[in-house]
TrEMBL record:
One of its GO terms (cellular component) is cytosol. Belongs to the zinc-containing alcohol dehydrogenase family. Pfam families: ADH_N, ADH_zinc_N. It comes from the Bacteria. This is Zn-dependent alcohol dehydrogenase. GO terms for biological process: formaldehyde catabolic process. SUPFAM superfamilies: GroES-like, NAD(P)-binding Rossmann-fold domains. GO terms for molecular function: S-(hydroxymethyl)glutathione dehydrogenase [NAD(P)+] activity; zinc ion binding. The keyword Disulfide bond does not apply. It comes from Georgenia yuyongxinii.
Length: 388
């Protein structure tokens, strides 16, 4: 057992020792190690983590399906308290509670100015490199760099992030619930509200009801969809989907598209949101969508998962639209403010999404829970001093 590490010196600009869950090799258990966390540089903030969710994307790196540099501190869905800010930071201050976004949208590049901030050039570059926006890391072991998953690395007691990644939230939201806003909620909700632009009275199918899919269900319900068909292999997740607003629940199978059409006057749904990233579920999503409908692909499948649709009979003749949704096509600060208001009013469910909590030393158990596709989200809660 590794003892809890203490801060070296409680003064600004000093490196800190932090316990972190480090992935050193694909498919090997993460190791709880002491790492050195450098102080924040200009435009950065130091966060003491309160809670972090465990997502399928963490597993994709763990299993080698999403290539990333190693060793790496996993984790990209978290919330915590600002401890220290670097030069030039005015958006947050020490003591603020924040949600962390793994896409530090710059607001200045071609894509941000074109109204597509989820394609931000600087943010996507940092995310893919496992580094800060300047290409360097703030984590190290014995002088060797340790990479940050998606520019965050939230499986650590302390992390340094770009100030644009730290969005202030009301103190009344628990860290376990707030953590989920930064990835699963924003991605799923945004897929329904921003990308699909679900309208009042429309019919929606959500294929794959894990953390992202359940929030697509919520987004569709809040948007006023009259019928929401939740599709998943697991009874537990289908029951959760009903609590999030689904009107119908189905399991995948050879007759799935026919079953969906039978619920929608024989036509198919207006919108199908695919959140599993599997070949068969993508195929089913296209088939269950009506002529002139929209198919939104969200799932992060491996390279061998392809979109295979006959160009004329599948798209031209039917006038279906197939579009990708990355991070819910979100404007992070704007959408997180909306989500916190919806939660405060009781319209957005977060408590129900926290299916199981784990201590930091149970990180590998949390990863296994996620791999078993149980519940909505496993959440790792840091020690009591980290805050609630």
């Amino acid at each position: 057992m590794i003892e809890t590490s203490e801060v070296l010196v409680e003064s600004p600009g000093t490196s800190r020792v932090s316990r972190a869950a480090v992935l050193r090799a694909v498919r090997e258990p993460v190791e709880v190690r002491e790492i050195l966390v450098e102080p924040p540089r200009r435009g950065e903030v130091l966060i003491r983590m309160g809670a972090t969710g465990v997502c399928q994307s963490d597993l994709s790196i763990y299993e080698g399906r999403l290539p990333n540099p190693l060793p790496m501190v996993l984790g990209h869905e978290g919330a915590g308290t600002v401890v220290e800010v670097g030069d030039g930071v005015t958006s947050v201050a020490p003591g603020d509670h924040v949600v962390l976004s793994w896409l530090a949208q710059c607001g200045e590049c071609f894509y941000c100015l074109a109204g597509q901030p989820s394609q931000c050039e600087s943010a996507n570059g940092a995310m893919l490199k496992g580094a800060m926006t300047d290409g360097s890391t703030r984590y190290s072991i014995d002088g060797a760099p340790v990479f940050h998953m998606a520019g965050l690395g939230t499986f650590s007691e302390y992390c340094v992030v770009p100030s644009r990644s730290a969005v202030k939230i009301p103190d009344g939201i628990g860290f376990a619930q707030a953590a989920l806003l930064g990835c699963g909620v924003l991605t799923g909700f945004g897929a329904a509200v921003n990308t699909a632009a679900v309208r009042t009275g429309e019919t929606v199918a959500v294929v794959g009801c894990g953390g992202v899919g359940l929030n697509a269900v919520q987004g569709a319900a809040i948007s006023g969809a009259r019928r929401i068909v939740a599709i998943d292999h697991h009874d537990e997740r289908l029951e959760l989907a009903r609590r999030m607003g689904a009107t119908d629940a189905l399991k995948p199978g050879d007759t799935l598209a026919r079953e969906v059409r039978s619920l929608t006057e024989g036509r198919g749904v207006d919108v199908a949101i695919e959140a599993a990233g599997h070949q068969d579920s993508i195929h089913s999503a296209v088939r269950m969508t009506r002529r002139g409908g929209r198919v939104v692909l969200v799932g992060a499948g491996p390279e061998d998962v392809k979109l295979e649709v006959p160009a004329f009979n599948g798209i031209v003749l039917t006038e279906k639209t197939v579009v990708g949704s990355f991070y819910g096509s979100s404007r992070v600060a704007r959408d997180l403010e909306l989500l916190t208001r919806l939660y405060g009013s009781g319209r957005l469910k977060l408590d129900e999404l926290v299916s199981h909590t784990f201590s930091f030393d149970e990180m590998n158990d949390a990863l296994r829970y996620c791999a078993d596709e149980r519940g909505a989200r496993a959440v790792v809660v840091f020690d009591a001093e980290a805050g609630r």
